[in-house]
Amino acid sequence: MYIPKLNSNKKRPLGIPEHEDKIVQRSITKILNTIYENDFLDCSFGFRPNRNCHDALKILNHYIEKRSVNYVVDVDIKGFFDNVDHTWMMEFLKLRISDPNLLRIIGRFLKGGYMEEGKKHKTDYGTPQGGVISPVLANVYLHYVLDLWFEKRVRKQCKGQAYIVRYADDCVPRKQGKCA
C-alpha cells in the first residue's frame, strides 16, 4: 500500500509483513539492537532504545546555542529506504555477525519482494518501510556510510569543530570553521 509523503504530492510504499514475519523480525531486531547499540555513535538518535527525536533536537539546540556556529546543513537522504544497497548491507552485517543462518534470514527479509495488485515484484535494493526490522537495518547502514564517514573523514578535514546529529535518514551536520 502507498501512504502520502509529508510535504509532498508523492506517496511512499508501505510494506505490511505477515504476522509470522513480524514475530521473527521483532526477535531479530532485538538481537541486532543488542549487537549494535554499543557500536552506534552518540550522534545517532532515530529508532534506538531510550533515544527519540526530542533528544536529537535537544543536542542540536545545545550545539547551536552554546557553541560557535558557522554552518548548519539540513540533510534528508532522498528515497533512502527505497535505495539501500543489499550487497553493502549484508557486508556491513558480516562485520559483526558470523552466524550464516541469521544473515540468511535477514537477506530473505531484504529480498522478500512485495505484492501489488496481485502481482509479486522482486526487490534487489531497499528495505520495506513498515517492516519491524527496517529501522535497525537503516541504522546499521547509516552507521557505516554516514556516521563513521563523518567522524573519520569529514571531521578530520575541518578546521575547528564539526558535529552531526542524525535521526533516521535525516541529519544536520554543523560546522565551526572551514572544511577543506
From TrEMBL:
<dbReference type="InterPro" id="IPR000477">
    <property type="entry name" value="RT_dom"/>
</dbReference>
<protein>
    <submittedName>
        <fullName>Reverse transcriptase domain-containing protein</fullName>
    </submittedName>
</protein>
<keyword id="KW-0808">Transferase</keyword>
<dbReference type="InterPro" id="IPR043502">
    <property type="entry name" value="DNA/RNA_pol_sf"/>
</dbReference>
<feature type="domain" description="Reverse transcriptase">
    <location>
        <begin position="1"/>
        <end position="180"/>
    </location>
</feature>
<keyword id="KW-0548">Nucleotidyltransferase</keyword>
<dbReference type="GO" id="GO:0003964">
    <property type="term" value="F:RNA-directed DNA polymerase activity"/>
</dbReference>
<dbReference type="InterPro" id="IPR051083">
    <property type="entry name" value="GrpII_Intron_Splice-Mob/Def"/>
</dbReference>
<keyword id="KW-0695">RNA-directed DNA polymerase</keyword>
<dbReference type="Pfam" id="PF00078">
    <property type="entry name" value="RVT_1"/>
</dbReference>
